[in-house]
C-alpha cells in the first residue's frame, strides 16, 4: 500500500495538475465565430480602387461591414469608381489623390479623418508596370515605377500609422506580386519595387507591431485585370497569346486568377482573425510559387 501510495500519489497529483492546465487552456480558447472576420465599424482606405484588384478588395471589405475610402489620380476615374460602388449598393468615399505626392497624401488622410473617421485599415494597392527590357529602359522610367509601387506605400503608410497608434490598432496590407520573389524579362523596375515592398512590409511589422499594428502583404499570382490585359490579347489568327498559354501551364490551378480570388485573403488580413499574423506575404497564386513546372514532352 505504502509502496503503491508512494508511486500513485505523486502520479495522481501530476495528473490533476495536468487536467487543471488542460482545462485552463480549453476554457480560455474563444469560440471561432464569423465575428472574428467582421470589419464592422472600421474605416478602410484602399488606394487606386476605382476598378481592378483594389475595387474587388474594397467591395469585400464593405460586405464585411467596413466603410470604404478610395482614391485615384483622375476625377473621371473617381467618379467611375463611385458609380461602380453605388451600383453594388456600397456607399464609398472617393478622392482625387496621387499616392506619390507626400503633400497630397497627407491632405487626403487629414480630410478622411475629418469627413469619415480615422483609418483602421490601409491597402496599398495602387500600382503601375512598365514592360521594357532593362537595357532599353531610361532611369526616369525606372524611377517612376519605383515611385508608385514602393515609395507611395511608404508615404501612405507613414501618413496613417500615427492615427492607428492613437486608436490602438491598425492593419496595413501591401499588394506585392510574384515579382516579389521571381524575376522575368522586361519587368526589372516592377520586380525591384515589389521585392522592396515585401521588405517594407516586414519592416513596418517589426517597427510598429508593438502598437498592435499588423502589416502583411498579399502576393497575387497572374490576375485578369487591365494591368495584365496586354498579356492576354488574342493573336491575329485568333489563337491565345503565348504568355497567356505560358501562365496557364505555369499555374497548378490551370487558370488566371480573378480579382475575387483576393477577397477572402484580404478580409482575413484586415480582420481581428489575423491579429498575430505580422510581416507575412500571403501568395494567392493558384500554386505558381510551389510548382517547378511541367516536364517537357
Ligand atoms: P490596374 O488594373 O492597373 O489598377 C491599378 C490602379 O492603381 C488604377 O486604379 C490606377 O489608376 C491606380 N494608380 C496608378 N498610379 C496611381 C497613383 N500614382 N495614385 C493613385 N492611384 C494610382 O492594376 P491591378 O491589376 O488591379 O493591380 C492592383 C495592384 O495589384 C497593383 O499594385 C499591381 O501591381 C498588383 N498586382 C497585380 C497583379 C495582376 O496580375 N493584375 C498581380 C500582382 C500584383 P489609373 O487608372 O488612373 O492609372
Ligand atoms: C508581368 C505581369 C506581372 C503581374 C503580377 C504577377 O508582366 O509579368 O504584369 O508582373 O502583374 O504582378 O504577380
From TrEMBL:
Keywords from the named record: Membrane, Oxidoreductase, Transmembrane, Transmembrane helix
GO molecular function: oxidoreductase activity
SUPFAM superfamilies reported for this sequence: NAD(P)-binding Rossmann-fold domains
TM region positions: 49-70
Record bears the keyword Hydrolase: no
InterPro entries noted in UniProt: NAD(P)-bd_dom_sf, Sc_DH/Rdtase_CS, SDR_fam
UniProt keyword annotation of Transmembrane present: yes
Source organism, top-level taxon: Bacteria
Family, similarity comment: Belongs to the short-chain dehydrogenases/reductases (SDR) family.
Protein name, as recorded: Gluconate 5-dehydrogenase
Species of provenance: Phocaeicola massiliensis B84634 = Timone 84634 = DSM 17679 = JCM 13223
Amino acid at each position: 500500500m505504502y509502496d503503491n501510495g508512494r508511486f500513485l500519489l505523486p502520479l495522481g497529483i501530476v495528473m490533476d495538475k495536468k487536467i487543471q492546465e488542460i482545462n485552463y487552456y480549453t476554457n480560455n480558447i474563444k469560440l471561432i465565430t464569423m465575428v472574428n472576420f467582421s470589419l464592422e465599424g472600421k474605416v478602410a482606405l484602399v488606394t487606386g480602387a476605382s476598378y481592378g484588384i483594389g475595387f474587388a478588395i474594397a467591395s469585400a471589405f464593405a460586405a464585411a461591414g467596413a466603410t470604404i475610402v478610395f482614391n485615384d489620380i483622375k476625377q473621371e476615374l473617381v467618379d467611375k469608381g463611385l458609380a461602380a460602388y453605388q451600383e453594388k449598393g456600397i456607399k464609398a468615399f472617393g478622392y482625387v489623390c496621387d499616392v506619390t505626392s507626400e503633400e497630397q497624401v497627407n491632405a487626403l488622410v487629414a480630410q478622411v479623418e475629418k469627413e469619415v473617421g480615422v483609418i483602421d485599415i490601409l491597402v496599398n494597392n495602387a500600382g503601375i508596370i512598365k514592360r521594357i527590357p532593362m537595357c532599353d529602359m531610361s532611369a526616369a522610367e525606372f524611377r517612376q515605377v519605383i515611385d508608385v509601387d514602393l515609395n507611395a506605400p511608404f508615404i501612405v503608410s507613414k501618413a496613417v500609422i500615427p492615427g492607428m497608434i492613437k486608436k490602438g490598432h491598425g492593419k496595413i496590407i501591401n499588394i506585392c506580386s510574384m515579382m516579389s520573389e521571381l524575376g522575368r524579362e522586361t519587368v526589372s523596375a516592377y520586380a525591384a519595387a515589389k521585392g522592396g515592398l515585401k521588405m517594407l512590409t516586414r519592416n513596418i511589422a517589426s517597427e510598429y507591431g508593438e502598437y498592435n499594428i499588423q502589416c502583411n502583404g498579399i502576393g497575387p499570382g497572374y490576375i485578369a485585370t487591365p494591368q495584365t490585359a496586354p498579356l492576354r490579347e488574342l493573336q491575329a489568327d485568333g489563337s491565345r497569346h503565348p504568355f497567356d498559354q505560358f501562365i496557364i501551364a505555369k499555374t497548378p490551378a490551370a487558370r488566371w486568377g480573378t480579382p475575387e480570388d483576393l477577397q477572402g485573403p484580404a478580409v482575413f488580413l484586415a480582420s481581428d482573425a489575423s491579429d498575430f499574423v505580422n510581416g507575412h506575404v500571403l501568395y494567392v497564386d493558384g500554386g505558381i510559387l510551389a510548382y517547378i513546372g511541367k516536364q517537357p514532352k
